[in-house]
Amino acid sequence: MTRQKILTQLTQYHDAIDYFDYSHVIEWALNLVEQGNIHDDILMLASFSEPINKFEIKPYINRALKAVGLNEKTNIDNGETILGWLYVNEILENRSIRKNLSFLESLYLTSGYEVKFNAFYSLSYAWMDFDYGQSYSYEYREVTIDTIEDFIKKEAKLYIENYINPIL
């Protein structure tokens, strides 16, 4: 699935996730503008810049979603799952693997230690072990510094298979 489709789904969950990163909504709106959508609320969203005040941006998101025929979604578990999907999709496309792994580690912590993010948390610490000179990881003994990205991609594929495909 394309990044824009993931961003669309994620934008629908903006109000369900307390720690939502509104820069994703701005990217979503910018992509819509590039596709020729010139609805006033989408243009307003595309014009926001950092730092983003969530109370200021929320009304525009609600109206922009309605303008493209979508509704907000409020299931926090699905919202976190979609956010995780954005990060694993980036990993599978070889974009900033370590950075996106860090985002997944943070998502594990902020989600209340959701099992679906546990492998990414452990792999993040395995990579830190390698940074500090260890030749192996306590939790992933078969992982080496040369194979860690392959293991992360393997877990990303499993995440999509186990958590994304069932809700689509």
Entry keywords:
168 residues; mainly alpha; 8 helices; elongated
The radius of gyration over CA amounts to 17 Å
Structural class of the helices, strands and pairings? mainly alpha
Name the assembly state. single chain
Uncertain runs:
none
Order of helices and strands: HHHHHHHH
Mean pLDDT comes to: 93
Shape descriptor: elongated
Largest sheet composition: none
Brief description of this entry?
By secondary structure, the protein is mostly helical. Helices cover 63% and strands 0% of the residues.
Commentary on this structure:
This protein has 168 residues and is mostly helical. It has 8 helices and no strands. The chain has helices spanning 3-12, 23-34, 40-47, 54-67, 76-92, 97-110, 118-131, 148-164. The radius of gyration is 17 Å and the shape is elongated. The N and C termini lie close together (11 Å). The mean pLDDT is 93.
Question: What is the secondary structure topology, with strand pairs?
Answer:
Layout: H1 3-12, H2 23-34, H3 40-47, H4 54-67, H5 76-92, H6 97-110, H7 118-131, H8 148-164
